[in-house]
Design goal:
By secondary structure, the protein is α/β, with parallel strands linked by helices. It has nine helices and twelve strands. An eight-stranded parallel barrel has the order 1-2-3-4-5-6-7-11, surrounded by five helices. Helix 5 links the parallel strand 5 and strand 6. Helix 3 crosses helix 4, helix 5 crosses helix 6 and helix 8 packs antiparallel against helix 9. It is globular and about 55 Å long. It starts with a strand and ends in a 17-residue tail after the last strand. The relative contact order is 0.14. The mean pLDDT is about 95.
Length: about 290
């Protein structure tokens, strides 16, 4: 497994450089979640430090903005290793440009079985993201049946909700009161959890209330191609420790010692859907 880590700021990139294998660069130009990363500087820095480069293009494009995606692909297609894409329209542009083999296509929760995986793999994409809302056993079944490159999140906050609507702004307008939009927490009336998120030009985003960690499961994930570490809302010092722990685990170091070291970071960790099947409740039709 190769580790790929989200990068949002120059300081973060410089601090983590010795621990990074493949950097997923998050930019205002193309990313759903971004800070203030100077993309051209980050690309040069990665090249100088022999760090693999993937550019995040995980926002959803509209017909009026899809041309921006095409220009972005054209600008960087001969420079970077991969593009991380969630919009199938962007994938079609990549196919037209002949760079489908540079696409890591992750439609979030959409790829849930080997048939889905095989159909998308037939387009020639470099790797495919498997749904984070199915069990690890099901993920392994997909990989073994399809024998293609895979992408799966192994650490960090997991995306729970995304809307192109600017919900905080709408709420502010309704209450005639200004609210912060960056690094906020949401809470529903029927839930006790606080969900981290933000609003920006792309819309409103909400993450689950805990960090995912699949450190102890890495031995079961040897056939996964990419393990994704989400650094959003993780300070640089903690993120460096997490990266080094995961690297050591992949290299076969003592997993019990590494788990103990990870636990000392005192993160609010759960395993998400790793062992939990989704259950759909049937509702009776009321006439």
């Amino acid at each position: 497994m190769r580790l790929i880590t989200s990068i949002y700021e120059k300081e973060q990139l410089e601090y983590l450089k010795d621990s990074l294998d493949l950097a997923l660069l998050e930019s205002k130009e193309a990313s759903l979640n971004y800070k203030n990363l100077d993309l051209d500087y980050a690309i040069r820095f990665c090249m100088d430090n022999h760090i693999g480069i993937a550019l995040s293009m995980d926002k959803i494009y509209q017909p009026k903005t899809i041309k921006e995606a095409e220009e972005f692909l054209k600008k960087y297609k001969d420079i970077v290793d991969y593009f991380y894409v969630t919009d199938l329209g962007v994938c079609n542009l990549a196919i037209k440009l002949g760079i489908e083999n540079k696409i890591i296509f992750d439609p979030k929760t959409m790829i849930t079985n080997s048939l889905d995986f095989s159909i998308y793999a037939s387009y020639g994409f470099h790797a495919l993201g498997i749904s984070s809302e199915i069990t690890l056993e099901d993920c392994n079944t997909i990989i073994h049946k399809c024998n293609k490159n895979s992408f799966y999140q192994v650490f960090g906050l997991r995306l729970m909700f995304y809307s192109k609507r600017h919900l905080i702004s709408l709420y502010s307008k309704k209450n005639n009161e200004e609210y912060p939009k960056e690094d906020v927490y949401f809470r529903e009336a029927t839930r006790s959890d606080y969900f981290p998120g933000f609003e920006n030009i792309n819309g409103t985003v909400m993450y689950r209330s805990y960090y995912i960690s699949l450190l102890k499961e890495l031995s079961q994930m040897k056939d996964f191609t990419y393990g994704y570490l989400e650094s959003y809302r993780v300070d640089n010092d903690t993120m460096k420790k997490v990266l080094d722990i995961y690297k050591n685990a992949i290299d076969g170091k003592n997993i019990d010692e590494l788990i103990s070291e990870f636990n000392s970071l005192n993160l609010n960790v759960e395993d998400g859907f790793t062992y939990k099947d989704s259950v759909y409740q049937k509702e009776e039709l009321k006439l």
